[in-house]
Write a structure and sequence with these properties.
By secondary structure, the chain is α/β, with parallel strands linked by helices. It is built from eleven helices and nine strands. The protein has a nine-stranded mixed β-sheet, with helices on both faces. InterPro entries: NAD(P)-bd_dom_sf, Sc_DH/Rdtase_CS, SDR_fam.
Length: 399
């Protein structure tokens, strides 16, 4: 079956009624398994006994394995994803080319690194996985809750790049499954060098006064608790190996601003938590030479945002950015590789937002027409903060 045909098949399987679509700054979602209801109001629990894994290292259909999981770790149902977009060919960095590069350029790669990427079966996480493969990663490990999409993504990336790619069916809310899967990664490849935590969901266009508390619990469990559990498991593996590492958390600009016109206070709160968690973790783990930074994307042109119901809002979003467009799904790849690479070795505790000036354009309080005096404040703050932005090691600002 051709790649395009597989995408059509995935789209038909993942299709959901328009009334159930939620939108957000980031176009990603954690995926549902066939055994779990995707109705957020239900309190169904799944206790995983083992984690399915597929190891792609050479020709063939992959080595199917299972990783046993200790008892525990409840799960909460979640929404189905949009299918991944069709991707270009992957040309990995070879050892011969790497050795011919100047030292500065070598440091801009992830050559020889083992990288775990959550939510890597589709969307931004999938593009980041491909970028890391192109930048010289030795092994790519995809954690995702969707067996079908995860297997397909790993097989495709291995086929196109030639590097070992593994997939572990892991729900980021299941701490026991995460620990078992990370232990298995250590057995296969050694301690990971990098974690890119891209798994997450979005609830938007829901008024706070009508927001179901069960949905809020689910949102926090996936976006924030999942971030903690993944960081903890990978961080422990790095510490045990006594090796430096980089943790890259994907948050959102919504963790630092209030979006307009959509109502999404709960989503914003979850991403604000991710940003603050990363700063605190950076301070705690600096002594272990583990860096923690956050990518906070703006409005991205992902599959979840390509629906007719969002056209009116997207017109407003585009109008709030100087380039008058949404970000392309591959435009965060370079930033991901940079934070994973040794080029950012003195950078930790930093939340990097998209530099599209959305912060100073989205609110009327910054419009001199409404507040003549306050209208000058953003420029003053911007000028003052330029020096602070030059402090690469964000961790220093914490003490």
């Amino acid at each position: 079956m051709s790649f395009a045909a597989r995408n059509v098949l995935r789209l038909s399987r993942a299709a959901v009624p328009a009334s159930r679509l939620h939108t957000a700054t980031r176009g990603f979602a954690v995926t549902a398994t066939q055994r779990v209801s995707d109705t957020p109001k239900k309190n169904s629990v799944v206790r995983e006994k083992e984690v399915p894994a597929t190891i792609y290292d050479g020709p063939g259909s992959g080595d199917k394995r299972t990783v046993r999981v200790p008892e525990g770790a409840a799960q909460i149902p979640f929404d189905s994803p949009a299918p991944p977009a069709e991707n270009e060919a992957v040309e990995p960095l070879t050892k011969k080319v790497y050795e011919a590069l100047p030292r500065t350029v070598q440091n801009m790669t992830v050559f020889g690194k083992t990288i775990i990427i959550t939510g890597g079966a589709r969307g931004l996480g999938n593009h980041m996985a491909r970028a890391c493969a192109e930048a010289g990663a030795k092994n790519i490990v995809i954690f995702d809750a969707n067996q079908e999409l995860g297997d397909a993504a790993a097989a495709e990336l291995h086929e196109k790049s030639g590097i070992p790619v593994s997939f572990f069916k892991v729900d980021v809310r299941d701490g026991a499954a995460i620990n078992a899967a990370v232990d298995s990664v250590v057995e296969l490849y050694g301690a990971p060098d990098v974690l890119v935590n891209s798994a997450g969901i979005a609830d938007s266009n829901i008024k706070a006064e009508t927001y179901d508390p069960a949905m809020f619990r689910r949102l926090i469990d996936i976006n924030l608790t999942g971030t903690f559990l993944m960081s903890q498991a990978v961080g422990r593996a790095m510490m045990a190996a006594g090796k430096p590492g980089s943790i890259v958390l994907v948050a959102s600009m919504s963790g630092s601003i209030v979006n307009y016109p959509q109502e999404q206070s709960c989503y914003n709160a979850s991403k604000a938590g991710v940003i603050q968690f990363s700063k605190s973790l950076a301070a705690e783990w600096a002594k272990y030479k583990i860096r923690v930074n956050t990518i906070s994307p703006g409005y991205m042109d992902t599959a979840l945002n390509r629906v007719p119901a969002l056209e009116a809002q997207k017109k407003i979003w585009r109008g709030l950015t100087p380039q008058n467009r949404l970000g392309n799904v591959d435009e965060l790849n370079g930033l991901c590789v940079f934070l994973a690479s040794d080029s950012s070795s003195f950078m930790t505790g930093k939340s990097i937002p998209p530099k599209h000036d959305h912060y100073y354009r989205h609110s009327r309080i910054h419009d001199p027409k409404y507040f003549p005096i306050l209208g000058h404040i953003p420029k003053m703050v911007s000028n003052i903060s330029k020096g602070a932005d030059c402090l690469i090691d964000g961790g220093y600002s914490l003490w």
